Amino acid sequence: MGVIGEAEDGTTRALLSVFGPAQIGDPLAPDRDVSDEDRERDQALQDGFVRVVGPDGRSYLVAR
């Protein structure tokens, strides 16, 4: 089983472009580099919140 965006043949690529997950950009384009600002923002979110699963099975974030 392949990874979406890494189809081995043209038919699979064509089908993924129609039936695959919704995409804004080109799914076959290389990934962009993550900026230092995005890394800092992500780390601040991870440091400031914890994911909790409620009794109903839904997950949500709670400030630490």
- Counting DSSP H or I runs of 4 or more residues, the number of helices is 2
How much of the sequence is in beta strands?
15-25%
**What spatial order of strands do you see in the largest sheet?**
1-2
Number of strands: 2
Can you characterise this structure?
With 64 residues, the chain is α+β, with helices and mostly antiparallel strands. The chain has helices at residues 10-19, 36-48, and strands spanning 49-53, 59-63. The chain has a two-stranded antiparallel ribbon. The longest helix is centred in the middle third of the chain and has 13 residues, at 36-48. It is flat, with a radius of gyration of 18 Å. The termini are far apart.
Summary tags:
64 residues; alpha+beta; two-stranded antiparallel sheet; 16% strand; flat
Short note summarizing the structure:
The chain is α+β, with helices and mostly antiparallel strands and 64 residues long. It has helices at 10-19, 36-48; strands at 49-53, 59-63.
Topology:
Layout: H1 10-19, H2 36-48, E1 49-53, E2 59-63
Antiparallel strand pairs: 1-2
